[in-house]
User: What shape does this take?
Amino acid sequence: MMDSENKYNNINKVALVLEGGALRGLYTAGVLDVFMQNNIKVDAIIGVSAGALFGINYKSKQIGRALRYNLKYAHDKRYMGMYSLLTTGNIMNKKFCFDTLVNKLDPLDFETYNNSGVDFYAVVTNVGNGNAEYIKISNAASEMEYLRASGSMPFVSRFVEIDGNKYLDGAISDPIPLKKALEMGYGKIIVVQTRPSGYFKSKPWMPYGLVYKKYPEFVKTAKEVYIKYNETLDLISKYESDGSIIALRPTKNIKMKRIEKNLSKLQAIYEVGIKDCNDNLAKIKEYIAKDININVMQ
Assistant: This one.
């Protein structure tokens, strides 16, 4: 797992890797709520898309928040869906989701987030070069645009422009950033996936080359992401089998749309996350508590 001396500072630290998946990410919200209820502490989170947008609630210590606002506003045209897409160009309404909601209707606890001590990284895709960038979000209020970029799905989102760069969904370039967590030297890694066991990603059929023809590197990355995704699944399986990492994934396959409006399905996938985490709680606690011998890693 390790490749250099300067990474040994993280050898006994715990990183959470959170896959995206739009509203399937409520599975992750269930897992994280169990973590908070049981005072399970991690040192870092690397979240992608919905994994980042829902993962912030762990850092702000707000149990139930992700489920609560999704159930409450699922049918509100201001939230996300075709009305927002047609009127703003973004399927997730920028004003409502990243201002009204987080500041007024169901406020994120920014103070707790900023002072939590947990390093939080949101994965975004740089449209210009097609590369993944891992943005450390230390101040959620001032860096909210990176969180928005991480969840900005292609074809249904405008570019998020920050400091002269254009960004879209981090899942386009690194959908499950396990390798990044390994490169950062974390000796204990918990991966939360949003697809059930046996799922593999197929070659994308979406017209990336037509819509994003001005950005050939982005198109290349998007077209090849299924290869990276499936390779990461193999890596997860390898490390999971030898006990190097723990992976949680839905044990029940609930078919959901990316922008799901069925409240029963939203509740159900969240409850699967709750159950799966509780079922693995003893194993997770034991894994986190163990010490890793640096000499063994060399």
In short: The first strand starts at residue 14 and ends at 18. The two ends are 9 Å apart (CA to CA).
